[in-house]
Design brief:
Layout: E1 2-4, E2 21-25, E3 38-40, E4 46-49, E5 60-64, E6 69-75, E7 86-97, E8 103-109, E9 115-120, E10 126-136, E11 146-154, E12 158-169, E13 176-181, E14 186-187, E15 191-199, E16 205-213, E17 219-229, E18 234-243, E19 248-259, E20 271-278, E21 283-284, E22 288-293, H1 298-313, E23 319-324, H2 337-346, E24 353-356, E25 359-361, H3 365-375, E26 379-380, E27 382-391, E28 394-403, E29 408-421, E30 433-441, E31 447-451, E32 457-464, E33 476-483, E34 490-498, E35 508-513, E36 516-517, E37 527-532, E38 542-546, E39 552-556, E40 563-570, E41 577-586, E42 599-601, E43 608-612, E44 617-623, E45 628-635, E46 638-641, E47 648-655, E48 662-668
Parallel strand pairs: 14-20, 22-23, 27-34, 37-41
Antiparallel strand pairs: 1-9, 2-12, 3-6, 4-5, 5-12, 6-11, 7-10, 7-12, 8-9, 8-11, 13-15, 15-18, 16-17, 16-19, 19-20, 21-26, 22-24, 24-25, 27-28, 28-32, 29-30, 29-31, 29-33, 33-34, 35-36, 35-38, 39-40, 40-41, 42-43, 43-46, 44-45, 44-47, 47-48
Length: 669
C-alpha cells in the first residue's frame, strides 16, 4: 500500500522564482553514510552497494541484514531553506522482500518531530521506480530543514531496500526532465520507441521537441504539442519508428531539444540512455530443485511427505534431482561420492536441504511455493534438447545446447536419476524415494563448456549402469543443468527422455516481405535477390514460416538499402540448421514507374488514419508479423478507421494502378 502526503494546496501556494539545487547525491563516493549525511543505527544495515537495482548507476545506498522490530533512518545534511517555500524531492528506489515487510518512506523535519511525506507498506518486491515529491509549508522554509529515508517495523521479511540519485531542489522556471525510455531492456524483435518526460518547472509546458538515436546512428525527431503540463505532471509519448539492432547490447539515447520552443534551464536532466539487450530468442527458465536428503533422516521424511506430492503436481513445470546423503547414522545406502561433491559445492551441513536454481530454500512448503513462483518469472537464452537410449545396462546420452547469447565457459551437469526407488529404505519410515541421483557425467564436477551465441554445443556419454544403484533400467530420466559455477546460479535446466525423437527438419515453408509471399520461393533455394523501388530507405519487414512447427527462426536485419537480410532456421534437435539469404537491391532503369506522393497521417494514430495523394488504390494493412488485417480496393484519399486495432506497429501497403507498392510503417496507439 502506498501513501503520499503532498504538503501543498495547488491553488494557493506561491512558487520560488529561481531554481537552486540543495542536494544531489548519487552515492558515487562509495562511503556510507556519504559526507554530511548520517545513518541510524550505525552499522552494516546501511551500506554502499556496488549494484544498480534502483535504476541508477552503481554504487547505490542499500539497507539490509536487519533483524527485530525497529526504525532505521538515512538522514540528509541539514539545509537552510529560509525564504524557500517549495522544493522538489526526487529519488530512485527498489525494494526486495515479501508480504508483511516493514514500512519504507521519507520524512522531513525542521527542528521538530519527523513528518512523513511519503511511505509504502510493501507486500512484495517493488521494481525500480522514480519518486517525485512536491514539498511546501510545514518544515519547508525552516533554517534547519532535514529529510530522511526510513524503514520501520518488523525486519523479518525485508531483504533489501535500494536508493539512488537523490535530488532536492527548488523548481526552475522552465525545466523538463527526460524520465524514462519505454523500450524493454530485453527484446527479441522490433519494438516501438517511446518514453516519458516530467515537468520540473513552474512554467506550464505546452510543446516539447524530443529526439532519439537508432542503432545505425539515424536521429529521429518529433515535436509534441497541446500538452499543458503543470509542475510534476508527466507526458508519455511514442515515436514514429521502432528500435531494431544487431544482436547483443546497445545503448538507446533519447534527449529533449526544446521546451515551449526554447532550451530549458536545466540541460543536465534532458538526456537519458538505456542499454537494450537484443537476443535472437528468449525462453522460459525452468525452475530446478535439488534436494539433499537421506532415508535415515526423520525430518526428511516429514518434508518429503508434502514435497513429493507437490513435485508430482508440478512435474511438467520443474526439474528435480535428489542426492541421498551418508548421514545421519549410517546414512542412505544409495549415497555416492558424486553426491558428496555436490554437497561440498553447496556447503550443505544438514538434511533435508533444498536449493532452487542454485539458491538455498527453506524446507517449508510456503518457501517452496514462493521459490517456484519467483523462479517461474525468470527467462533464459539457453535451449536444451537431450535424449538417451538404453541397451541392456548401457545408457547412451546425447545433449544439444543452443545459446542465444555469449555465455563463455559454464558448467554443464548431466545426471541420470531413477524416477522411483525402494531398495534404499532406511530408518525414517519412507518406503519409496523419487528422482534419486544414480550417476553424474563426467563426474560430480560436471563439464566445462564454452557457450557462444548460436553455436550448438553437443555432449555425449556412454556408461554401463550396472555399477550403480539403478533398480530398473526402464525407469530412468536424464537431468541437464547449466550453471554459473562461481555464482551457483542455474541458467537453464531440462529433462532428457528415453528415445526422444527430435526433428531435424530446418527448411522454410515461405518467406514474406511486408506480409506478401516472396516470388518464386522454393524451400531448397537459399538465396534471393529482391528489387525495391528507387528511393526506398526502409527495408521491408521480413517474416518466415517453418516447415516443421517445432523449428524456429532467427531473422537478421539488413539495416541499410541496398543490403542483406538472413533467416537462420533451427530444427527441433537444436543441431540441424539452414540459412536463407535475401539481398535487397534498388531497381533502376527508364521503365521504372514513379512512386506516388502518398502521405499518411497522423503517425502515431489512435482512431483515424488519413491517406492523401491517391485517387484510386488498393490498400492493405498488415501486422508486424505479416498477417493481413484490412484490405480496401479502389480507395480514394480519406480516413481509415483503426480504432479497433490494438496498440502496435503495422505496415500499410498502397498500390495505385501499375505503380510500385508504397510501404509505410504506422504506429497505432
Amino acid at each position: 500500500m502506498k501513501r503520499m502526503y503532498i504538503l501543498l494546496i495547488a491553488a494557493c501556494f506561491s512558487l520560488s522564482l529561481s531554481a537552486q539545487t540543495f542536494i544531489s547525491e548519487d552515492f558515487s563516493s562509495g562511503q556510507m553514510p556519504p559526507p554530511g549525511w548520517n545513518a541510524l543505527p550505525l552499522g552494516s544495515q546501511w551500506s554502499s552497494s556496488n549494484t544498480s537495482n534502483a535504476g541508477g548507476v552503481a554504487p547505490e545506498a542499500e539497507y539490509s541484514n536487519a533483524t527485530g522490530t525497529t526504525t532505521a533512518r538515512l538522514l540528509s545534511p541539514i539545509i537552510d531553506l529560509t525564504n524557500v517555500d517549495t522544493v522538489l524531492l526526487v529519488f530512485k528506489h527498489a525494494y526486495e522482500g515479501s508480504w508483511g515487510s516493514p514500512d519504507i518512506g521519507v520524512a522531513t523535519r525542521g527542528g521538530s518531530p519527523w513528518t512523513i511525506v511519503w511511505d509504502e507498506s510493501p507486500n512484495g518486491n517493488i521494481d525500480p521506480e522514480e519518486i517525485q515529491l512536491i514539498l511546501t509549508g510545514g518544515d519547508v522554509g525552516k533554517p534547519n530543514f532535514q529529510f530522511s529515508f526510513f524503514v520501520s517495523g518488523n525486519m523479518a521479511n525485508l531483504d533489501a531496500w535500494y536508493i539512488d540519485d537523490v535530488i532536492l531542489k527548488s523548481p526552475s522556471g522552465l525545466d523538463c526532465k527526460m524520465t524514462s525510455i519505454s523500450v524493454p531492456a530485453v527484446i527479441t524483435g522490433p519494438e516501438a520507441v517511446g518514453g516519458s518526460v516530467t515537468n520540473l518547472g513552474n512554467t506550464a509546458v505546452n510543446e516539447i521537441s524530443i529526439s532519439w538515436q537508432s542503432f545505425n546512428g539515424t536521429v529521429y525527431d518529433s515535436t509534441f504539442t497541446g500538452l499543458s503540463l503543470d509542475l510534476l505532471e508527466t507526458f508519455d509519448f511514442d515515436f514514429d519508428g521502432s528500435w531494431i539492432s544487431a544482436f547483443g547490447y546497445h545503448d538507446l539515447t533519447m534527449w529533449i531539444n526544446t521546451v515551449n520552443g526554447v532550451q530549458d534551464e536545466s540541460q543536465e536532466n534532458d538526456t537519458l540512455s538505456k542499454t537494450i539487450a537484443y537476443y535472437a530468442n528468449i525462453l522460459p527458465r525452468k525452475p530446478c530443485f535439488e534436494e539433499f536428503t537421506s532415508s535415515t533422516c526423520g525430518p526428511c521424511a516429514s518434508f518429503n511427505s508434502s514435497f513429493v506430492p507437490w513435485s508430482q503436481q508440478h512435474a511438467d513445470e520443474i526439474v528435480l534431482v535428489k542426492y541421498q546423503m551418508n548421514w545421519p547414522g549410517s546414512g542412505d545406502p544409495y549415497y555416492t561420492p558424486e553426491g558428496g561433491t555436490r554437497r561440498n559445492y553447496y556447503g550443505v551441513s544438514y538434511v533435508p536441504d533444498l536449493f532452487c536454481n542454485g539458491t538455498q530454500t527453506n524446507t517449508s512448503m510456503g518457501s517452496v511455493q514462493s521459490a517456484f513462483d519467483n523462479a517461474s518469472e525468470l527467462t533464459s537464452t539457453l535451449d536444451i534438447a537431450s535424449s538417451f537410449t538404453v541397451n541392456g545396462t548401457n545408457i547412451d546420452i546425447t545433449t544439444n545446447i543452443l545459446p542465444f547469447s555469449n555465455y563463455g565457459e559454464k558448467r554443464v551437469f548431466t545426471i541420470v536419476v531413477e524416477k522411483v526407488t525402494t531398495g534404499n529404505v532406511g530408518s525414517n519410515g519412507e518406503t519409496e524415494f523419487h528422482h534419486v541421483m544414480m550417476k553424474m557425467f563426467p563426474n560430480g564436477n560436471g563439464s566445462t563448456v564454452d557457450l557462444q551465441d548460436r553455436e550448438t554445443a553437443t555432449l555425449t556419454y556412454n556408461y554401463d549402469m550396472s555399477s550403480t544403484h539403478v533398480e530398473e533400467m526402464d525407469d530412468l530420466l536424464v537431468v541437464v543443468i547449466i550453471q554459473d559455477y562461481s555464482s551457483k546460479e542455474i541458467l537453464q535446466s531440462a529433462y532428457g527422455y528415453e528415445d526422444a525423437n527430435y526433428s531435424d527438419e530446418a527448411r522454410l515453408d515461405m518467406i514474406m516481405l511486408d506480409g506478401e509471399p516472396l516470388d518464386e520461393f522454393d524451400p531448397d533455394v537459399y538465396e534471393y535477390d529482391v528489387y525495391l523501388p528507387e528511393g526506398t530507405v526502409e527495408e521491408p519487414i521480413l517474416s518466415a514460416e517453418t516447415m516443421d512447427d517445432a523449428a524456429f527462426t532467427v531473422i537478421n536485419q539488413a539495416f541499410e538499402i541496398p543490403g542483406t537480410s538472413t533467416v537462420e532456421v533451427y530444427a527441433e534437435d537444436l543441431f540441424s540448421t539452414k540459412l536463407y539469404t535475401v539481398n535487397y537491391r534498388i531497381a533502376t532503369g527508364t521503365d521504372e514507374k514513379p512512386v506516388p506522393a502518398v502521405h499518411v497521417f497522423p503517425n502515431p494514430a489512435q482512431d483515424q488514419l488519413y491517406l492523401t495523394g491517391i485517387t484510386r488504390a488498393d490498400v492493405q494493412l498488415f501486422s508486424s508479423d505479416g498477417k493481413l488485417l484490412m484490405s480496401k480496393a479502389n480507395f480514394r484519399s480519406g480516413p481509415i478507421d483503426v480504432s479497433d486495432l490494438p496498440r502496435g506497429i503495422y505496415i500499410l501497403n498502397i498500390q495505385a494502378g501499375d505503380a510500385h507498392v508504397v510501404r509505410k510503417k504506422v504506429i497505432i496507439l
